């Protein structure tokens, strides 16, 4: 997608990433514009797909989700049917927050958020019962040092 964003668009996006719940008046004030041009730019960025959705960020610990595992998966299966079943299995599990296909020795990495190690084991047992996996390594995150949903806008 080739969308040209100017400095004002980037300022607006930065404000939305900081707090999408703020009013258009507050955003306009913060970026040095008025409400109508800000609204028009936001609308255009939504239509262009730059702004995909607006959502609430929840506190995982407050919800009892205290164990974050990074799951490294190696597979000897690379057929289309296996990939389809694997994708279906991941999409059916809300505890999988992210899944990435990688280049290198590891085929996939998952970010899995669960209440505890027992819950992770239930996730693991269910996953390997649905799709054949050659090797799984689970790494427990001891401490989250940085986490953000804000994309870098200055480049």
UniProtKB/TrEMBL annotation:
It comes from Aliiruegeria lutimaris. Keywords: DNA-binding, Transcription, Transcription regulation. SMART domains: HTH_ASNC. InterPro entries: ArsR-like_HTH, AsnC-type_HTH_dom, Dimeric_a/b-barrel, Tscrpt_reg_AsnC-like, Tscrpt_reg_AsnC/Lrp_C, Tscrpt_reg_HTH_AsnC-type_CS, WH-like_DNA-bd_sf, WH_DNA-bd_sf. It holds the Pfam family AsnC_trans_reg. GO terms for cellular component: cytosol. Coiled coil: none annotated. This is Transcriptional regulator, AsnC family.
